[in-house]
Design brief:
alpha+beta; 163 residues; 7 helices; elongated; binds FE2/S2 (inorganic) cluster; 47% helix; single chain; four-stranded mixed beta sheet
Length: 163
């Protein structure tokens, strides 16, 4: 059984938003993200809780949760790296960027480092094509990547600083 997935305050906040909402489905992502912020990822209980709050079936919530790659349905590291593999980044060397990240972290795409610091995931366009190749860690976007820049970013992310 997962521990508390939402604080009483958050539950109340969502209940108020739900009362004002014509379409409960519009709150699915916000609810899943709130659970993820508190719990680190979204366990099955989080899908069931979201569904029951919004009057949806768990399957309806699961379909959205698994479509959206910023929702994690299994445990992840403390920082998740989304490295773009779409066309602009690919044409500007993202394959080499991915290889460098894998070498530095010692993991393959989809894996988490042994110390739990980083999870590395491929993602579609981050909307930063003008800065390709690009990646995102948490809510921070990093563009114009090269090997040296990645090393500085990883070192800074490890210590909570800025590269
Ligand atoms: S293709 Fe990578 S940010 Fe758009």
């Amino acid at each position: 059984m997962a521990p508390e997935l939402l604080s009483p305050q958050k539950l109340e906040e969502f209940q108020k938003r739900l009362n004002r909402s014509e379409h409960p489905r519009e709150l699915v992502i916000d609810l899943l993200r709130a659970i993820q912020e508190k719990y680190g990822w979204v366990p099955d209980e989080g899908v069931v809780l979201t569904a029951s709050l919004l009057g949806l079936s768990p399957l309806q919530v699961e379909e959205i949760a698994t479509f959206y790659d910023k929702i994690f349905r299994q445990p992840v590291g403390r920082r998740v790296i989304h490295v773009c593999d779409s066309i602009c980044c690919w044409s500007r060397g993202s394959e080499g960027i991915v290889r460098h990240l894998q070498d530095r972290l010692g993991i393959a795409l989809g894996e988490t480092t042994a110390d739990g610091s980083f999870t590395l995931l491929p993602t579609c366009c981050l909307g930063a094509c003008g800065q390709a190749p690009a990646m995102m860690i948490g809510f921070t976007l990093y563009g114009h990547l090269d090997a040296q820049k990645i090393d500085a970013i990883l070192a800074a992310e490890r210590t909570g600083g800025t590269p």
